[in-house]
Specification:
heterodimer; A: alpha/beta; Rossmann fold; 8-stranded mixed beta sheet; 3-stranded antiparallel beta sheet; 12 helices; 13 strands; globular; B: alpha/beta; Pyruvate-ferredoxin Oxidoreductase, domain 3; 4 domains; 6-stranded mixed beta sheet; 20 helices; 24 strands
Chain lengths: 351, 607
């Protein structure tokens, strides 16, 4: 949001970020989702995070699959290229975009239907390759655009508006991501903007697949009594693992952190994430501990949020490919067509 | 019925058949016979005699029957020939069937213990104690099976008169840098050769004599040729999922790229190759890369094409360039994965739901596999759409003689891509507007540093400004422009090769690897007083030459390797007023079409 002019200063310069852009420059077209949709709250935090980070919009590409959540890239970053792909296929398209130009910051928005069902395979392989992307699952437990069928993340025993009870176990996308070696796994809630914006910024500073499973209530089809993905349920049940503080690389660290009550994680671009302990003694760098915590929380029907797991030491996919420094997309004919001598030599080998 | 021309080139004076026969080697797959067959084929080729080599193999790694056919032909006919003149029956599993299928007067080289002479007395048998000879060649039991393959090379070389110098050259080439293997194999060939010389009495008409028809020629398979084309087209992103018969295209390409597109000093690559989790992901990645400005491609076969249907339509509708190679095999379903076919034509052309039609390039030789690969990337980027290159197993995986490929002279065509300076000058950008009237809009790639550059790609209805729409007029506008773009392609795609014969009432139309059989069949028909004109289709959409050609002939036979006459149907749709002239010849048993099949089918209807 651009700040309103104050009484003391009637003609102020618009407030800008470190690259001179206003928050309006990070906005998209007006949302067409239902009033109060959790997805719109997430969209607002994406705009805020990218604005505050001062990312160049033209260096960002936003991608999605199909579903309500996948419509949202149209609602932020109008000055970035967008790609609303096929159902469940965003991970492969994002992988291709990364191959062509690994200097782009990719943000992918998907839903629980798009990721946990039709796109589960591509989700797994994106993580396995560690393609650099901020991968947001806007998770509401139902198919909104087709009017309220259960998705594969719906909790066991949760109830549809029609009274139908879900009798299948949910797929826990965070647990799965950790299992697959993901180096940045977080769970959050659309109704917790402070935590979400810190996680989004940290994800943007992380070079690798960063998975954010964000509970994002569907006000039309899954916000009733008996739903485990409603605003009411999530608000009551949310248990943050820690309080998050993000210090961008371009700001000097002025406060030392307390080793007893805080965990400090340095991210790939030099930014820091401070995890202030809240009651639990949670270590976000302990993979097995994270898996145990998730399983235990699920068994106890707890809704834990925060940075579940982080590991900055895994090579990203472009690292493994040993690509030239220039994006492949910008290579010229001289750089990609070997000279005639090469063809002559190959032809001679076939004679 | 008119008299059929004789197939055999038997000289009436000497009774000899020189440089015109086919050798059929039956072995077990996984037994290592590929090297020996290759040595035999190359040795004959090096004698200056035109050859082609075809591997008929099972969808299996070891233990099932496989056949390798070498066709030797002084006139340069390199299509498959149905008749086998010389059988090397090394596989006990199939030996009886193989011998029974021979025509009278054919030759059979076989292990003595199979006693094949009892099966057919009208065939000339050369029985060889391969077991004993293998024991002479090595005392290592493990090597005997492998060296037995070289023993038959020695026997056949002696019987047919293959120059020993050429054998030595081929062996050295085959086992380059492995002196021990060279010695071992040359020794085995020599044992076979010496035994044959001392023990067999030549009693068949087949002889090889040196010629000068292969000087400066290469032998290559279509997949390797296409891979070379891709490298010289400057491909930067290859995404693929292994499937027969297209895997070798990707694997050859990866090898070439590693050799020629990695900076020797830094070890950094100007390409990315990704083995995807399935064909959906392979095409998703190729489209993502094409969208972001890379020259991208994938290669697959029929089942992969089926899986790519949705994303191909997406690429068509959102206008993203990429190149899809389909090396056709026999379908439907798993079909016969190691047999050849041309049955993906309409599937590829019209792939996906809704009104879609794609540009398809149809190479008909290894040289065209190379040239069309280069062309495909230019057309994909010029037209901003997925382009198919349809090859097949016969063309892609078998050995073909060709002239060395020319180095590309045309610069890369990257199509209508606007950069920041151009956007600044124009002052506006509408992604899907037909500015030039050719149906092809302008695009930008992500990362372009200009406030006007960004647009939103979506598979849903979109306006000229790339915004969402469900308005009827917007949709019609878009679909009509896509049709206009497709029509523009008629002037860009490779035109057909047309050969008019002045007194011909009969026209032949074919595409792809069927060309080899047509080339030979037309000569056979000419001898039978049926002169024919010939048009070889090299791309869809059709170009104007097609109508002219059909109009000029009384009957036009469309010859293709599928059950339903797919090209015939497309031509009838294109030329409804001429549909009655169009006749159909279809070969679809999984083996490459042969000339005699075409000749017989045309003579049957032209009698």
């Amino acid at each position: 949001m651009v700040q309103s002019p104050s009484k003391d200063n009637p003609a102020p310069q618009p407030v800008t970020n470190r690259i001179g852009l206003t928050q309006a420059d990070y906005k998209g077209s007006p949302s067409t989702l239902c009033d109060g949709c959790g997805h719109d709250a997430i969209t607002s935090q994406i705009i805020k995070a990218f604005y505050e980070l001062g990312l160049e919009p033209h260096q960002v590409a936003k991608l999605s699959g199909i579903g309500c959540s996948s419509k949202t890239p149209a609602y932020f970053l109008n000055r970035s290229h967008g790609f609303n792909s096929c159902h469940g296929r965003m991970p492969s398209v994002a992988t291709g975009a990364n191959l062509a130009n690994d200097t782009l910051t990719l943000i992918g928005v998907s839903g629980d239907g798009d990721t946990a069902s039709i796109g589960l395979g591509q989700f797994c392989h994106l993580i396995r390759r560690n393609v650099p992307i901020i991968y947001i699952v806007e998770n509401n437990g139902v198919y909104g655009l087709t009017k309220g069928q259960f998705s594969a993340t719906a909790d066991y025993g949760s109830k549809l508006k029609s009274g139908v009870i879900n009798d299948l176990p949910p797929i826990d996308l965070c647990g799965l991501a950790i299992e697959l070696g993901c180096g940045f796994v977080a769970r959050s809630f659309a109704g917790d903007p402070k935590q979400l914006v810190a996680l989004l910024k940290a994800a943007a500073s992380f070079k690798g697949s960063a998975v954010l499973d964000v509970i994002s209530p569907c006000v039309t089809f899954n916000n009733h009594e008996g739903s485990t993905k409603s605003y009411k349920y999530a608000k009551e049940m949310e248990t943050p693992l820690h309080e998050l503080g993000y210090i961008p690389f371009y700001e000097q660290i002025t406060v030392d952190y307390d080793h007893g009550t805080e965990q400090d994680v340095e991210l790939h671009d030099g930014s820091h994430l401070r995890l202030k302990k809240l009651g639990h003694d949670y270590d976000a760098t302990d993979r097995l501990g994270a898996i145990n915590t998730i399983q235990q929380a699920n068994a106890e029907k707890k809704f834990l949020t925060g940075l579940l797991y982080i590991n900055e030491n895994k090579p990203s996919f472009p690292d493994l490919l040993h690509l030239v420094d220039k994006p492949l997309a910008s290579l010229t004919e001289a750089e990609t067509r070997p000279p005639k001598e090469v063809l002559d030599q190959i032809m001679a080998s076939y004679k | 019925m008119k008299t059929l021309p004789a197939d055999s080139a038997q000289s009436s004076e000497t009774g000899r058949v020189i440089n015109d026969f086919s050798i059929h080697v039956a072995t077990v797959n996984g037994s290592g016979s590929q090297s020996s067959n290759s040595v035999l084929m190359r040795s004959i080729f090096q004698m200056g005699i035109p050859i082609s080599g075809k591997n008929l193999f099972p969808s299996n790694i070891a233990g099932l029957p496989t056949w390798f056919t070498i066709r030797v032909n002084k006139d340069g006919y390199i299509a498959r020939r149905n008749d086998v003149d010389i059988l090397v029956a090394m596989n006990p599993q199939t030996a009886f069937e193989d011998v029974k299928a021979l025509k009278s007067g054919a030759v059979c080289v076989s292990p003595s213990e199979l006693k094949l002479n009892d099966v057919r007395s009208d065939v000339k048998h050369y029985q060889v104690p391969f077991g004993d000879l293998a024991a002479q060649a090595t005392d290592q039991i493990k090597l005997r099976k492998l060296l037995t393959n070289m023993l038959y090379v020695g026997v056949v070389a002696e019987l047919l008169g293959v120059d020993n110098e050429e054998i030595i050259k081929s062996i050295k080439r085959q086992f380059d840098g492995k002196p021990k293997a060279i010695d071992l194999n040359l020794n085995a060939i020599s044992i076979g050769r010496t035994w044959a010389k001392e023990n067999l009495k030549k009693a068949d008409p087949f002889y090889l004599e040196p010629m000068n028809k292969t000087a400066n020629k290469i032998i290559i398979d279509g997949n390797a040729a296409a891979a070379l084309g891709c490298m010289f087209a400057g491909v930067t992103v290859l995404t693929w999922y292994p499937i027969t018969p297209s895997s070798s295209l990707c694997e050859e390409l990866i090898d070439y790229l590693k050799e020629h597109r990695v900076d020797k000093a830094t070890g950094k690559a100007t390409f990315a190759c990704v083995q995807a989790e399935d064909e959906l992901a392979a095409l998703g990645m190729a489209l993502g890369a094409g969208w972001a400005g890379a020259r991208s491609m994938t290669a697959t076969a029929g089942p992969g094409i089926s899986l790519m249907a949705e994303l191909t339509g997406f690429g068509y509708f959102t206008e993203i360039p990429t190149v899809i190679f389909d090396i056709e095999r026999v379908g439907p379903s798993t079909g016969m994965p190691t047999r050849t076919s041309q049955a993906d034509l309409t599937k590829a052309h019209l792939l996906s739901h809704g009104d879609t039609k794609h540009i398809v390039l149809l190479p008909g030789s290894v040289e065209e596999c190379y040239l069309f690969a280069i062309e495909a990337f230019d057309i994909a980027e010029r037209f901003q759409t997925p382009i198919f290159v349809l090859s097949d197993l016969d063309l892609g995986m078998n050995n073909w003689m060709a002239d060395p490929f020319p180095y590309p002279t045309k610069k890369l065509d990257r199509g209508k891509v606007l950069n920041a300076e151009e956007l600044e000058k124009l002052g506006k950008f509408e992604r899907y507007k037909d500015v030039d009237g050719d149906g092809i809009p302008y695009r930008t790639v992500p990362g372009t540093n200009h406030p006007l550059a960004a647009y939103f790609t979506r598979g849903s209805g979109h306006t000229e400004k790339a915004t969402y729409t469900e308005k009827p007029e917007d949709y019609v506008n878009l679909m009509d422009r896509l049709a206009r773009k497709y029509n523009t392609a008629r002037k860009y795609v490779p035109a057909p090769i047309v050969d008019y014969v002045s007194n011909a009432n009969v026209g032949i139309i074919a595409f792809g690897s069927t060309d080899f059989a047509i080339y030979e069949s037309r000569d056979q028909l000419k001898v039978a007083n049926i002169p024919t004109s010939y048009l070889r289709v090299r791309a869809l959409p059709f170009t104007d030459e097609l109508r002219t050609f059909v109009e000029k002939h009384e009957h036009v036979y469309v010859v293709e390797q599928n059950r339903d006459g797919q090209l015939r149907d497309l031509i009838r749709l294109e030329l409804p007023d001429l549909a009655m002239k169009i006749r159909s010849i279809r070969h679809y048993d999984g083996l490459p079409i042969d000339a005699r099949f075409v000749t017989d089918a045309i003579m049957e209807q032209e009698r």
